[in-house]
Each structure stands twice: as structure tokens, then as C-alpha cells.
Write a structure and sequence with these properties.
By secondary structure, the chain is an alpha/beta fold. The chain has two domains: 4-120, Rossmann fold (3-Layer(aba) Sandwich); 129-225, Orthogonal Bundle (Arc Repressor Mutant, subunit A), CATH 1.10.10. Helix content is 39%, strand content 22%. It has eight helices and twelve strands. It has helices at 12-24, 35-44, 61-69, 85-93, 106-120, 155-165, 174-182, 191-204, and strands spanning 4-8, 28-32, 49-53, 76-80, 98-101, 129-132, 135-138, 143-146, 149-150, 172-173, 211-216, 220-225.
Amino acid sequence: MGRDILVAEDDYNIANLIHMYLVKEGFETRIAPDGARAIAEFLKKTPDLIVLDIMLPAMDGWEVCERVRKTSRVPIIMLTSKSEVRDRIRGLEIGADDYVVKPFEMKELIARINAVLRRTEIPNDTSKSVSYDKLSVDLDAYSLIVDGRKIDTPPKELELLYHLASNPNKVYTRNQLLDEVWGFDYFGDSRTVDVHIKRLREKVENVSDQWSLRTVWGVGYKFELKNGKALR
């Protein structure tokens, strides 16, 4: 049986075209014509990935994404006719894994679905966690513990922090982080990384004198490990 894809799209023609191509590619596909039905289908059975239009009746894609993210890290690709950078950044900030701007080629959507599914697959025998003084980042449980407190963190922020903390003192450019953390050919603004770093700093800054999130001016960012060492 193929991977289960939930498509939330109110345009009948677009929804059926997506359904036809996904079935042809071997995916099990469910269609939700509005946001409320999308949540109902999600609760009925958690899909392997959600293709989510933003402009939905009953409940828009922003709210659907936020509700899903309260309980699940299922991959989400947002469909939008809005090409403004702020709208794309908003989608990524609330937990979307990728976005496709309408009008789009079906081959591009299929490629992005496959890319996101590959990136989000974590082998059962592979542990993805790292700990330092007063900091624990666990991608298996998608949890962030800072100074003994669990901090609610959007998936992409957590993945970014894990990537940096797993490679202490290594400097990454913004484009490298977009490629290695977002895991697809990102066509947006590299300021996305700046936004995520800023929010991470609000959660972890000045917690320990053994590590910090540092800006390397003119280059990018790094997780600087000072006198401490990883506890993993």
C-alpha cells in the first residue's frame, strides 16, 4: 500500500488533478474540500503527508496547520497563490515543511512531496538527540529541554538547533542551512534563517556559559562550544 497523502484543496479541478497524479505515482490519496474536513480526516487517520491549500473555506490553511502542529509533526506542504516573502515565511514559521506557489507544475509538486518524505524519514535504529550543559535537543521526541524546562518549539526551529548543535563550532552560511535543514531547493529569502535563529535565541540565550548561538558576521551562524562538551 502506498503512502497516505491528505490533500486539502477547495478547487474541484485542482484537487482532482492532484489526486490523479498522486494515485498514478502510487500514493493513497484523500481529498478534503475545506479546512474543517481536513482536520476531521487528519483525526480519523494520520496521513504520511498533508498538501494544504491556504485559502480554504470553513477554516483556512494557517489554522489547519497550527492545529495539526499541536499534536503531530506530519510533513505539511502548503499551496498558496501568495508569493510574498512574508507569507512564505509565515507558513514555515508555524510548522510547514515546504510550500508551492500557484500556478504550479504537477511534476514540481510530486518532486517536493517525495523530497519532503525522504527528508522526514528517520530510521528506527538511529537516535537523533544531543545534550549539552542545560540543553537537550531530541528529534526523536521532537522536544527541547532548556535548564530543566520543556520549551514548546516549532519543528523547523528544533531541526535547525539540532543541526547546529550536532556540529559544534562549524560555521554555516544561510544557504547551507536552508539546503541542509529545510532539505529542498528553497526559492525563498535567506532571511528565513535569521527569523528562526532570532526565535531560538529568545528560548536559549544566556542559559549556559559553555555554549551559545553565534553570528559570524558576513558568513552565517554556528553553535559555539566553549569550555563544555557534548553529554551524549
